[in-house]
Amino acid sequence: MKGTLVRRASKIAVAGIATAALAFSATACGSSSEEGDKDKGIGLAYDVGGRGDHSFNDSAAKGFDKAKKDLKVGGKEMTAKNTDTEADRYQKLADLAEAGYNPVIGVGYAYTPSLAKAAKKYKDTDFAIVDSVVEAKNVASLVSAEQEGSYLAGVAAALKSKTGKVGFIGGTNSALIKKFAAGYVQGVKETNPKATVDVQWVTPGSTDGFGLPDRGKDMAEGMLDKNIDVIYSAAGGSGSGAIEATAKKKGTWSIGVDGDQYYEKGLADYKNSILTSVVKNVDGSVYDFIVSVLKDKKAMTGVQTYDLKQGGVSLSYSGGFLDDIKPKIEEAKKKIIAGDIKVKSTYAG
Length: 349
What we know:
- This protein is 42% helix and 18% strand.
- It contains eleven helices and twelve strands.
- The chain is globular.
């Protein structure tokens, strides 16, 4: 039952015709499996860590905030907990669609099954998922070439490391995070074949690993004790802990992820140890999708890939720490774009 019927019912009620019965009817419509009036704005469901993780979720939040401001619309945010089940994630998306938010965006691959289910039920709602693919007519899959930006981070790490030992901390050993690891390891090895890369996972097989900054800090400290002097983290909020650890040891570097973490206010005390960041244009892809729905009235659908060539991923030069090796990084970037360097997207370790 569409929202227009709800409005019609309320007008009749004002006129005094069968007020009680119609009020009951309108309430029943609101609790049905159909969406309400789609005029509430944007619905956004964050992954574990939510807004304030200084990383992946915050990047999505920037796109959400910009769209609300530019398009003058409202919105509602929800955040997954470490303890959330598949049913919990689905309920968040369903609640947003039921309440009339459109579009509805699931931030993170963990929403894949639940968003596929929600898109099938709420066919009049425009959905998007970040970092995964859901095949449905009313879904846009916003994915990035993380491995390409990570390759450049590997080049930087290999050239800046004085010990020839670098590290990688992934939130979990999922296919997505292994893309980061694959590009990074390849970039390191092709720049300095003698270098070693220590790859570790915060919580293998679980998304809990993206919201454990203390655990990230402990892991980084363990790497630093082994004479590793550059650590790249693709671990959401857990990566913030790793950044804190490197900041406390002179001569060591951290590499940020998703947003340009040099400028993250919550990491300001550590920015002079943030060598660079692999920037994913999550804010841009989220913004583009929202605009396509609310302004262009022609919602994006299908797989939308943001790669190095189109600026979907990049390596930041904030702080000037890479100025001395920038020509070599730019050379690698050109080769990737031209296809002369084929960056792997799978990591076997």
